[in-house]
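re: ur question from earlier - yeah i can do the single chain one, its not a big deal. heres the input i used so u can compare w yours
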Amino acid sequence: MTDAHETAADTALRTTGGGPPDEDVPANGLPTPLLVPREGVPPVVATEDALDEVIAAFAAGRGPVAVDAERASGYRYGQRAYLVQLRREGAGTALIDPVGCPDLSRLGAALDGTEWILHAATQDLPCLREIGMLPTSLFDTELAGRLAGFPRVGLGAMVESVLGYALEKGHSAVDWSTRPLPEPWLRYAALDVELLVDLRDALEKELDRQGKLEWGLQEFHAIASAPPAPPRKDPWRRTSGMHKVRRRRQMAVVRELWTARDAVAQRRDVSPGKVLSDAAIVEAALAVPVNVQALSALPGFGHRMGRRQLEQWQAAVDRARALPDAQLPQPGAAAAGPPPPRAWADKDPIAAARLSAARTSVSALAEQLHLPQENLITPDTVRRVCWEPPVDGDVATALRGYGARPWQVDLVTPLLAKAMRATA
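and the output i got, formated as tokens:
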């Protein structure tokens, strides 16, 4: 029975018993290489008839389903899935081609109510949502590893340290839009879900041993129930090197070139960086060239670029040059929320002291609990509460308003409340 004066943090420290156990390494000190799926590499499902068979098999399967997706980041426009891998007891492994089968909503419906196991779920859920697949509940093995205090949480590292197997990870950055997909790539993809169920079960036991299982369940529920992220406002402002661009006319050049590049990339279905680099966009913005000749002299617009392409980019620059001042973008569109912490000492010294005290306490507790500080509570949430403390002193309600889960509220509220009192 817990002492009446014991805080949530004390309870957590008493029950966790530290970080993850010693790595389970075979007697020879080396992990066992996992080279081939236990049933071999299945054929790629690319027709509706083959998909019907997979749906029937997975609907009849038992237990949770391991799910993964491969994208073509850096090669194709957007973040669509080009291969979906699944594994379930009683159904085996399936490799599905979303190009041949672009609508997997029937498969998603067949798995309704089944727990999905994903590694780094937030990376794959957007592209799975696009093809009609969305879990009602999930278990994220990467996040579970973070909560359990593992220092390395990549899939290969987790499988090796928890299960004692070494996965081949040589094809993670290939162009998954390639057709047909080479057999070594398919083998790699199948192995990515081969041990996810085993990893999930081992991590559940470890979280339970540390007294953190409820934390994980709350985190997984938050991910599964989160709505789609809204489109980013002014995405051109995220152009790499944008910090060099100071004047509004130059910002307009970035905006016009970014927009023109995005249209070309979408039409050609290639990564925008393959159409025109961010560095080239920034060079053109800084120079604001008056004609094609001046543009072609800039880095990124050299002799390999054809006249037609140069004219296309110069037209974007000319549109920016012709804009009236009233239509130029404003510098540094302020993000919602508090200013950067480096400015707090000048703007509000008391808030700066609050933030310093809160950060120190949160960091110390995260270290004691053997988990990353950002998983205990997001730095943005700490900043927001410290910049505008609740007028009624109700820190817990403020934390919930910023999306903190109950376990985070229980642990962090006393820390932030103390920081508020110390700087009142």
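The chain has a mean pLDDT of 93. not sure if urs matches, ping me
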